[in-house]
């Protein structure tokens, strides 16, 4: 009797080809945790992917006909229009580099301070003001009758007001004020992740501050700086309110975003406006890809350790 019971299986063997749907999804990498991403994916699909694809489709259907590349041909045939690419790059690249150059030494200093949270809060206040409020403050401060020029003239350092708004300089300063807190917070997060014992060991071996920064901090920080550069560049490249409020939108600060706005909402050519927006996106992707490739030439290990 017992021998007969031992030969009877307690559970029926699984039938080939009858695996449950849940098990098949898990084998493909879709478990319960992965399904939690579904709302976020739907959100991105509805608010980013679909509008982007629709914009590309719209750019390939010119309002006045002429073929599916007519908008792009018209854009690159007009020097006044395609020149906005170089104007935007001349503004976005220096602004991003200056913000990075300011953020790195300040972040290295702030991370060793006792009141780090207080100083960080003070440094990020400008980003909470918004672009329009920042531009309005610059007009009141750097304008011909603003405090800056009044103080310099009262000290007899200048005889005529210095023009710092409604030109390229005004937009440049506005982007520094609004973009620096963003760069600083990102760089500070990467800097604080570097193991201090690496610098201490190098200092014990006689390495000077410049040598420690070049051979330890910079290689470990390269990936973070690349990501910060990409995000800050995308933000600066899409500048629009500052170029209008404190710049010269029909002159030296006619950036590519203004050209897109002019085509879509002044000429009511939404197809051309979409084409310019697509060109903006392609340029940003090219720059980001180039920067990420350059960053791959540096050390790509963890920031808390060394190469070996």
Report on the structure:
With 308 residues, the protein is an all-alpha fold. The protein is 70% helix and 0% strand. The protein has 15 helices and no strands. Helix 6 crosses helix 10 (168-191) and helix 7 packs antiparallel against helix 10. The longest helix has 32 residues, at 79-110. 24% of the residues are buried. The model is unreliable at 1-5 and 304-308 (pLDDT under 50).
Topology (SSEs and partners):
Blueprint: H1 2-7, H2 21-27, H3 32-35, H4 38-59, H5 70-77, H6 79-110, H7 116-129, H8 131-142, H9 147-154, H10 168-191, H11 196-204, H12 209-237, H13 241-245, H14 256-266, H15 270-295
Helix pairs in contact: 4-15, 6-10, 6-12, 7-10, 8-10, 10-12, 11-12, 12-15, 14-15
């Amino acid at each position: 009797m017992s021998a007969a019971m031992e030969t009877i299986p307690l559970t029926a063997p699984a039938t080939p080809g009858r695996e449950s749907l849940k098990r098949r999804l898990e084998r493909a990498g879709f478990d319960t945790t992965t399904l939690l991403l579904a709302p976020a994916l739907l959100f991105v699909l509805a608010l980013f992917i679909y509008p982007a694809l629709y914009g590309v489709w719209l750019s390939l259907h010119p309002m006045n006909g002429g073929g599916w590349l007519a908008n792009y041909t018209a854009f690159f045939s007009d020097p006044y229009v395609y020149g906005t690419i170089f104007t935007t790059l001349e503004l976005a690249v220096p602004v991003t580099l200056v913000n990075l150059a300011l953020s790195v030494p300040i972040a290295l200093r702030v991370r060793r301070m006792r009141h780090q949270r207080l100083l960080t809060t003070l440094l990020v206040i400008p980003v909470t003001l918004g672009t329009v409020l920042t531009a309005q403050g610059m007009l009141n401060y750097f304008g011909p009758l603003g405090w800056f020029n009044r103080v310099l003239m009262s000290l007899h350092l200048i005889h005529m007001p210095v023009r710092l708004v409604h030109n390229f300089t005004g937009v440049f300063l506005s982007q520094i004020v609004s973009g620096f807190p963003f760069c600083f917070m990102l760089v500070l997060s990467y800097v604080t992740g570097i193991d201090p014992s690496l610098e201490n060991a190098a200092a014990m071996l006689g390495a000077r501050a410049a040598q420690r920064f070049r051979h330890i901090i910079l290689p470990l920080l390269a990936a973070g700086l690349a990501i910060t550069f990409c995000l800050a560049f995308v933000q600066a490249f899409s500048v629009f309110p500052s170029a209008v409020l404190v710049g010269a939108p029909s002159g030296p600060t006619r950036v590519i975003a203004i050209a897109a706005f002019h085509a879509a909402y002044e000429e009511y050519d939404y197809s051309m406006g979409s084409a310019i927006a697509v060109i903006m996106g392609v340029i940003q992707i090219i720059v980001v890809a180039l920067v990420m490739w350059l960053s791959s030439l540096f050390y790509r290990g963890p920031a808390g350790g060394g190469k070996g």
